[in-house]
Amino acid sequence: MWPFVFGTLWSSLIALVIAAPIAIGIALFISHYAPRRLAGLLGYIIDLLAAVPSVVFGLWGALTFAPMLVPFYKWLNTNLGFIPLFSGTPSGTGKTILTASLVLAVMILPIMTAICREIFLQTPKLHEEAALALGATRWEMVRMAVLPFARSGIVSGAMLGLGRALGETMAVTLVLSPLGIVTFNLINPENPTTIPAIIALRFPEAHDQGVNTLIAAGLILFIVTFAVNFIARWIVSRRAEFSGAN
Predict the structure, then answer these.
(1) What local confidence, expressed as pLDDT, does residue 245 receive?
(2) pLDDT (tens digit, 9 = 90+) per residue, 40-51?
(3) pLDDT tens-digit map of 61-111
(4) In terms of residue numbers, what domain contains 30?
(5) Which of 91, 133, 173, 206 suits a disulfide with 189, CB 3.0-4.6 Å?
(6) What is the pLDDT of residue 239?
(7) What is the dihedral of CA 233, 234, 239, 243, to 10 degrees?
(8) Among 52, 222, 61, 235, which Cα is nearest to 157's?
(9) Largest Cα–Cα distance in the chain?
(10) Residues 6+ apart with CB under 8 A from 84
(11) For residues 122 and 143, what is the distance between their CA atoms, to the nearest angstrom?
């Protein structure tokens, strides 16, 4: 069971690390840099991407994206093979934990971008105009006025994206093979899988003790997701208290 817990957390954290900076950058561009027409178009595209079913991302990842990454994995192994993350034999199909994490990052990117965009747009205009009036550049204004105001919202958006990545089933199921191992290697053909994926794969043939095992796996996933959301709410509340005290 613990290898599946590890696979769930490992793939979700990688996806969050990849998606969070990109989401913040896109949201800042839409809210403070892009022309109005372009910002409206990009916002519309982001909202459409958030509504795409996960099975579509999974099919895209397994049939198109994974084969495209095979040369990149070979390059990583050749040039960065001394790092344990990229050592060993790279996958010949591209179906690795890194591919699954990249697919998850693409999936959670629209949600995080939409939340960050709305938070950035709620920054008080007086704060922005005061920073600009004092001679700050646009980036300095964003760094001093927008990002501090939106910090709790960014954390909330990141945790919401992490929650979706933790519970994702079809995308990971289509990309990864169900192996119960623990490894930090990102490009090997043998990869850990996630709890939702293993439940989806094994539940149709499960019976008696197997059903009880999968129910226990679902309970563990619920506990992990609840813990993540609890930590996120604690971080946001502490930030709100700190801001109020100042």
Answers:
(1) 46
(2) 888 888 888 888
(3) 888 998 999 999 999 888 888 888 888 888 888 888 889 889 999 999 998
(4) 2-245
(5) 91
(6) 59
(7) 100
(8) 235
(9) 70
(10) 184, 185
(11) 15
Render 172-232 in DSSP notation, one character per residue: HHHHS--B------SSSS--B--HHHHHHHHTTT--THHHHHHHHHHHHHHHHHHHHHHHH
Question: pLDDT tens digits, residue range 110-130?
Answer: 989 988 888 898 888 888 888
| Structural domains counted in the chain | 1
Helices (H), 61-208: 66-80, 97-121, 125-133, 138-141, 147-167, 170-175, 195-202
As given in the structure block, the two tokens for residue 216 are: 């226990």
Radius of gyration from C-alpha coordinates of the chain:
20
How far is residue 186's CA from residue 191's CA, in Å, rounded to a whole number?
8
Residues 8 and 12: their CA atoms lie apart, in Å, by 6
CATH number at residue 206: 1.10.3720.10
* CA dist., res. 124 & res. 147, Å (int): 12
Residue 234 pLDDT class (50, 70, 90 cuts): confident
Tokens of 17: 């690390």
Token match 């006025």: residue?
A: 145
Task: Report d(CA 27, CA 143) in Å as an integer.
Answer: 14
Cβ atoms of residues 31 and 121 within 8 Å:
yes
Kindly give, in sequence order, each residue whose CB lies less than 8 Å from that of residue 155, ignoring residues fewer than 6 positions away: 232, 235, 236, 239
